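Query structure, 188 tokens:
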């Protein structure tokens, strides 16, 4: 119990010491812009929207309620990180179970960092027969380490520096996805 309290206090202190780089109102404005762009592109396509767990959950909750057209929702869980701060191979924890055959699919996730997870997801859905796969992320990290040169999402809310980010769906060791706004960890 004592170690749990120390760990929880460390997690709290980490947020208190982090840099708030995007406040909640700017995050909500970015999601609003994404919703308008997605509506313009997908309103007549009968899309199937996959939320990538756990990171895409917060974004999907805010974004999907602003899409005023018929759509189906499902989820999948693929990760490179788990609760770690860096990752290796993509691990599938929950495969998509909805029929994507001939459908337009929108994949909603929190962040496009290197892009290996997003590429694995889109490749998998294409193999299952999706007519087209589109991607939506709240944050695109700006750096030169993308899995493929020029890799970007079809819909992006914010482009941010290459720092360890959390809040608005992104986590720090499994915590603070629920933080309002986007923070950057100091010294990571």
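Result returned for the query:
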């Amino acid at each position: 119990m004592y170690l749990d309290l120390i760990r929880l206090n460390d997690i709290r202190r980490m947020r208190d010491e982090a840099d708030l780089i995007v406040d909640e109102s700017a995050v909500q404005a970015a999601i609003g812009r994404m919703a308008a762009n997605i509506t313009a592109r997908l309103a007549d396509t009968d899309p199937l929207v996959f939320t990538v767990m756990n990171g895409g959950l917060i974004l999907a909750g805010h974004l999907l309620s602003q899409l005023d057209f018929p759509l189906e929702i499902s989820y999948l869980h693929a990760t490179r990180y788990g609760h770690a701060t860096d990752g290796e191979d993509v691990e599938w924890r929950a495969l998509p179970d909805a029929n994507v055959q001939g459908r337009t699919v929108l994949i909603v996730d929190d962040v496009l960092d290197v892009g290996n997870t997003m590429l694995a997801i889109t490749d998998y859905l294409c193999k299952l027969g999706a007519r087209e796969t589109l991607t939506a992320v709240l944050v695109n990290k700006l750096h030169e380490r993308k899995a493929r040169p020029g890799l970007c999402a079809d819909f992006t809310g914010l482009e941010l520096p290459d720092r360890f980010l959390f809040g608005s769906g992104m986590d720090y060791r499994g915590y603070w996805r629920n933080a309002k706004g986007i923070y950057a960890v100091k010294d990571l």
